[in-house]
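Reviewer comment 2.1 asked that we show a complete input and output for one of the modelled complexes. We chose the iron/sulfur cluster case, as it is the one discussed in the main text.
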Amino acid sequence: MPPFWIRIPLERMTREQWESLCDGCAKCCLHKLEDTDTREIHYTNVICRYLDPYSGRCSDYANRSRRVPNCITLTPKTLDDPYWLPETCAYRRLAEGRPLPEWHPLVSGDPGSVTRAGHSVLGRVVTDAEADDLELHLIDWVR
Ligand code: SF4
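Response of the prediction step:
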């Protein structure tokens, strides 16, 4: 039988299945600038101050929307037009009918495969408590 992320549409997944789709890359926690004409997203190496620098997970996940009002809670509805998420994000890929990458923990069976494949932001970011002008922090290594 195919794995659940192939068989079950996003809107019918259990909470546990839904949460397991996140690979922990933390790219979505990077501050970004958007060209409002082209919708092109420009990533910075500035990360939300609530990101746990060791786990790559939000340190206050339950209260993230209250702490950071522009933190978007991912739901099937907010994935209607997921252009603002990184290309590799499992939620975006499934919403766009694409497969998970081979380094995704659900596929590889190993959470460390995200870092080995170069997709974790840990170790190459500064927090928004430390950073200044976002335009001085633009990067080109997020895919
Ligand atoms: S970009 Fe997607 S896979 Fe990566 S941390 Fe954010 S929600 Fe999880």
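The radius of gyration is 15 Å. We note this here for comparison with the apo prediction described in Section 3.2.
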